[in-house]
Structures
1.
Amino acid sequence: MDLQRFFAIIDTCGPSIDLFFHLAVYTFLIFSRSSKTTLRYSRNFHKPSSWPLAVHVLAGLFEIVRYHTKAVQGPVLADSLDILACLLQSGTNVYLAKFLLRGDKLLTRPAYQAGGLLRPFVSFLAYAYRSPSLHRSSVKIVDGFVYTRLVIWVSHRLGLHHSFSGPGVYSYGVFLGALLGISYSGLCHGVPIYLSAMAAILVVSRKVTLFFESQSDASTTTRGARLWGGFFLLCGFVDLDTLRNLSYPPELSREVRDFYVSPNMGSQTPGQERPDIPPKTDLPGHILMRLDAKQDPRVEAD
């Protein structure tokens, strides 16, 4: 009887415990890590402004705190403010992934882009059908941020960055964090849908890349094809090298030194190789990252 009473108390206080846990975890991550890394991120990656990352973090934090605060009183329904916060968080997610150099280019960017495109649909469905469970799933997916940092932290503590290199650790951290976030959100068939979206983004990105690489004469292409190509280019569904040649943004036009950026992914002028690192090398990735760190003492691991 005492045991049953204990579990009944835990079940009753569950939302309050959940709120306290999220407040503690996100406060620690935001103020001990993100406040420091946001400035370094903008400096190292030559971002014209840090506001997209700030909006991304604040919108996600607003969703988390608002949901768990209201959940203490009972089931929560999505409203227009939740939709707006979701669109801001997801939209900046897609924007930040467009010029992302960290991690593996075939895994990291699609992992971010798939989540940024799918979560608004879940939020809209939760709002349209007045579903507390779908709204809970939409908000819980944001916890993938926490799982990503946890996977990266554990990987460093176990020394896996020596085997997989910094970019490898970051790629697997983002991918596994997203899968954990979707799994614990309780979204029905969420993981297969997410993996299918990632595969679709990879296919589209490949086709868009081939489309722009084959366009020697714009007059030979239809207006519709150019419009679709421009739309996918705007969303970032294209290879980074092609994006660099077409738009040449500040994020991709300067030298970047970061623990999670592969040496052959460093920004360079189109058609020009980096002088300090050969284009082809037999050295393992983690040794190259250590060489970069020795050449630039400002390199830090997040």
Note: Residues 6-11, 267-302 have pLDDT under 50 and may be disordered.
2.
Amino acid sequence: MNLKIFVLAVVILISLVGAAYTVNTQKSPQTSYNLTYNFEKGDKFNYKSVSSIEKPKNTISENIDILVSDVGKNHITIQAISTATINGNKTEDSYYINMTSHGSSMELSSKNSTIPIIHSELPNTLTYPEKEIKKDDTWITALDKFGNYTSDEGSTNYNLTYVTKYECLGLKTIYLDAKYFDCIGIKSDTNFTLNTATMALNKTIYVNTTGNTLGESWVDLKGGFLVKSEYDTKEIVKTDYSDLYEEIGLEKLYRETPINSHTTYELVNIKKE
């Protein structure tokens, strides 16, 4: 009987040691993250977007294709082409960003009026900190930038200032079209002021836009690319037509337009080189 008890005790001891070893060797949940845009030249991303505008009430559907056209030691160049459908009519816009692997913008050029660095909901435009972060960590980016672009309306010079506060929301699995992505959530709150001067018919139209964009993005933990985002934007656009109508006696002519919108972006397809 004593022998049976001894053997049983040995078996139980071995089982307990094995269980303890199994528990100790299991991976602990990841709690710190080092986010970068882990892109290769030739990577392609396709996104779909829906924007709902309150006044005038409208819905804009958009398809956006992103190509990583160059990757260097200290820079990534991405090209984005978007096709939007508004009231049944299609319009095309494009922009290029030369940035660091953490998303700091080094150079920006735009075909039309898109200035992506104030639109946090746009794919792959977030700025990541150059250090590990944990849930509830915050960081801030700011910019004061001059630039220009040419559109059908004429040549436009602009001055943009903005401050964005980011907050890490932690790890979450996002499911899209039967695929799952381990993602980090990032909340962003952007206050911006955009002043533009557009030359048209030898006259200048001045526009002052102040706004706030608030929402969250979920980005792939390993690749850094956007998986989905959802944002609310509130803007007040003040347009000064005084120079345009001065010749007919209207010395001061202004128009103020509030614009509130809700925008979502989702990853449709990805092709990694």
Note: The longest strand covers residues 154-176.
3.
Amino acid sequence: MLQESSTALASLSAMEASRPESDPQGTVVPTTVDWDPWNEALSLVNVVADREIVEAAHALDEQLWRLHIMVRRGLTPEENWLDLQARVTAARADLILTARRRLSIAGDSLPRLSGRPAPDDPIWPPSHPGQR
């Protein structure tokens, strides 16, 4: 499920980046995202996971839905990609921590889920904060 959510997010990023300027914001474009792997992973979680994990997976699914809808219609000037991506990333982190709490023998949470520098870290160029 984690791999599939990462793939979906990368596909959404590519879809947004490749949106033709001739398609004005508000014009819904066809999706280029293959949702089958994500939907299969979500279905598997629905079958085998406990309620808390399923609810966390559904929260991640909701954020992916919201982002997909926004990308299909084109982001407005007020909608910042990094902020929108952060909502998906936060839901993904919650799923990881919920699964870890429910399934891990230790059940402890993690202080961080990656070593990526914070978006405001001086390592990032000012024009692209937090992007690789």
Note: The chain has a mean pLDDT of 87.
4.
Amino acid sequence: MERKKREEEEHKEKAEKLAVQTRAVREEQIKARDACEESIRELVARDKSKMKAKELIEVGQKLKEAEEMKRKVEKELNTQLESSVGKTRQVVAGEVFKTVRVVMGHMQPLDAKGRGELEGAVGKVNNLLRMKGLAEDKTPWVVTAEGGKGSWDDESYWEVKKVKEEVDPVEVCGEVGKVLVAVFGRTGDMLNVWVEDKKSVKLLAPAAPSKVARGRKGLAEAIQGENKEIRLAKRFPKLWGAARVTGFSFDVADNEEAKRVIRNGIMWEGHRRKVSYFEQGAPYRPAQKVAGTGGGVGFRYPQKPREQ
């Protein structure tokens, strides 16, 4: 976590330096254009009635060169320079922008068809964001997306680029969430959307059977209802099990909260249940499925949170 934070700070610092350099180049280009215009005005204003043929040719040649240089400089000025600094920052026309990572939960794990549809949805989302940016006279946000893998194969990750530094990631999530609803809303595949939180930690209550069938949202509400003091993360919990459902996984705000919950356990349907760190690769069952997956895998109790 600290390493990623340091990397992001380094990217921000490099981007700010690059922005200064880009602005300096742009200022020089503007000076060059102004110099060309001044030269053109001076050449045009000369009294050519008293010039000899050789002088007229020289003035004509200089005027042509000045006009060509002006066109070249203006072309460079009209070209919006873009540079990426790591995965977290972009420099566009001398201004620093950041990347905000938004997560979308899906009702079912993404299969080959779902991942293909995800690629097609990126274009629709970018079109809507572009229209929004043009309407508000702002630099449009641009997204890329990829499907999650392993235990997170029912999530997609949307990297939102060209976001101004002062914009709150929660605001970005809200605006992008509206666009995602417009694109995915009718499919019924969208569960929820949240800003990726690198501090959150996934936990497991392996022996917490449920007497009532619940979806992931209902499961989250039930957990919070019996454990009001627990700071849950935005990711909804999932039913967990091998041959049959025996418990659930859930995310808490950070590792300090994870340690506290592991130490105290969690209340579930009136009983206190044991909790461990979630082991990546452990079997789980989506709330919508009932059939067994077979081939159960055991779980361990590591001392550090798993990378997400």
Note: Confidence is low (pLDDT under 50) at residues 287-308.
